[in-house]
Please model this.
Amino acid sequence: MTLIHTELDTRAVARTYELDRRHVFHSWSAQAELDPMVITRAEGSYVWDGEGNRLLDFSSQLVNTNIGHQHPYVVEAIAHQARTLATVAPQHANDQRSEAARLICERTPGDLDRVFFTNGGADANEHAVRMARLTTGRPKVLTRYRSYHGGTQTAINLTGDPRRWPNDTGTSGVVHFFGPYLYRSAFDAATEAEECGRALAHLEQVIELEGPGTIAAILLEAVPGTAGIMLPPPGYLAGVRELCDRYGIAFIVDEVMTGFGRTGAWFVCDDEGLVPDLLTFAKGVNSGYVPLGGVAIGDRIADHFAHRPYPGGLTYSGHPLACAAAAAAITVMERDGIIDNARRIGTDVIGPELHKLAARHPSVGEVRGRGVFWAVELVSDPHTRQPVAPTGGSSPVMAEAVRTAKRLGLLPFTNGNRIHLVPPCTISESEAREGLHIVDQVLGRVDALVAGTEASH
Model:
């Protein structure tokens, strides 16, 4: 595939890179080992790098540009709001925050009818946990291994992947358990039904052994995202809801990554007929155009704070620029059928084509997903299911997969031994097929590397 180039100011790009390396401290990185790609512009499903190459964005950056890049309706809404009221303290009402809250609550399930706005997903989870602890008067929170809930102190301890380890104080009141993951079952299950039943039995045992009266909340990603896009088996989320009700535990569902169209529904909870006590969101609420997250709150939690102050707040809670972007993004998602497009692309294009690739490439252990939210798990041996990279780490095979994808014109999202296919919800069928054609070539390269590694042994 030939990359499409555009004219650019090479001196400006060099200056951008120089200043970044001199002054910017990057997240999750060893600073001296970084070589960041300069992004000069973006539009729709594409970004342009500092060498003028156009790349199809199959990462949605950090799985958040659900409406694509530079959507004119949302960009204009932000500009209009900046000219009208650029900022306001959160104790005052403003029209954009009110309208964004209305639009969100119309789409959240059940009685989740109030919104506490935050700056992003991590602090949404922080505040949801705080609300649950204050409402129940209990200290502990249960979360699953293979999960990610954010990088702030409480959120990183809630997380169940290796990024938690350097920050884990062991005093956070968080207990981790195994969630369902049939491909690498912790329960020796052979079917989804077995995996579901045994995972729920395991969770109930953890509750009983930890002491139900000590547990404030169970926090789950609706579908674990960065950890691997493991779709919960039918009945699992409903089973967790039943356990929470039985033991008086608040149920928090993290839809930071899945919310606002990513799986072909506004929320997985609504698609599953599930109503949690608290639902956290961010990312797709306004496609990351201005930082925004929040907690959708049900009656049980809201009633607790009806006549007692909630001890928490943020300077930028419900920032008018962010809320204007959210109101505009939700409006265009509804108006333009973007949710339906995400579901159709997943059902008709990405899902079928990935299963064909899995049958053709021995390095593919499993593909799984829904909507525009898919993972390809890569293995060195399909029988032993040995991953080509460690959990939360990388490997020469995965590094070469990323290089190959970029060389062919695709910006991928990878984690551990997986390539995640998470394009914007607005992606067209032709763009999706373009990306899948590149993925096919990337997998061919992985096959060759794995075969070469095996031969050398």
